[in-house]
Design brief:
3 domains; DXP_reductoisomerase_C; EC 1.1.1.267; alpha/beta; DXP_reductoisomerase_N; DXPR_C; Rna Polymerase Sigma Factor, Chain: A; 17 helices; globular; Rossmann fold
Length: about 375
Amino acid sequence: MRKLSILGVTGSIGTQTLDVIRKSNGELGLIGITANTSVEKVIEIIEEFKPLYVAMMDLKSAYEIKNYCKKQNKAIEVLEGIEGLNKIASLDEIDIVLTSVVGMIGLGPTMKAIKAKKDIALANKETLVVAGEIVMKAAKENNIKILPVDSEHSAIFQALRGNDINTLRKVILTASGGPFRGKIIDELKEIKVEDALKHPKWNMGRKISIDSATLMNKGLEVIEAHWLFNCDYDNIQVVVHPQSIIHSMVEYTDGSIIAQLGAQDMKLPIQYALNYEKRGNLIADTIDFYEISKLTFEKPDSDTFKALNLSFKAGKIGGLMPTILNGANEAAVELFLDKKIKFLEISDIIEKCMELFKAEVKNELTLENIIDLDKRVKEYVVETSVL
């Protein structure tokens, strides 16, 4: 049995990971879980999976879980806050950590897990976006694997398997185009939150759904791909593929292109990461090529959806610039979800912050500087953007 912890067990990726465990025929065991405030969901998970450790970020929720475990005579260690998150990520009993918490909060626990020599099934984009250089260096020093869970990076990872990385010419990231594909700027001025959350292909959390609508999600994936596959930004191409059947492709030096295809189901890349280096059982629908009929491809409209170009720019500048990009985006998306700014303002705010804080880029790339700058960028966005 391969034993794991899930950071962010009640989110979209976390709940789908539970389904992967259910269907693993006992090959995967759940030892530790973390959540924020979802007490009822965590209790259901405790009853079904019987983890040994639970951490709740919210102190009141942790108290409720402790009381429940005490009344039910359950020998579960209940932890709280960031310290609890860090412990769940680095337990002696586990082999691998699936990090699916949203935002910068995932960076610290991921580093703790790496230093504890635990393999990482990575579903937290921000970790590599803001600290890719630090994370990949630490992974190499501790001889652990960073196994991508994003469907796009999992596809690239699979397409590269068995081939010499030095023969890689180009990474081709596919994008669905989001809910507003084909729309012009004038059509986006009065976009409502409810419309932005309606992704045409994938069932995702609120934050990532907005990122998909702005194409920021694809921009963050570009920066991730740079670090995961040691690929120059000029050799990373984004292609809109509305059917979302091809999850991404790689082109080799001889011009050959290998693509990974599959159903629109996140359980596939989750299972691949947790079972690596072998494949698991059939866990999602298979593709019927007679029904698909055609696959189409388009160039992304990065003038209308400028978050994509801003991501390429931040990645090429490097240093702390991706921290500025990511921090501004996280804060702006939250403001949009709270209906305090308009949809198009998200990218405007990111661009403004990249210019305003650009002098910070020359500072040393350390975890302390990343965390500090992230905090200051978010505070600026909130203080200057609330109507």
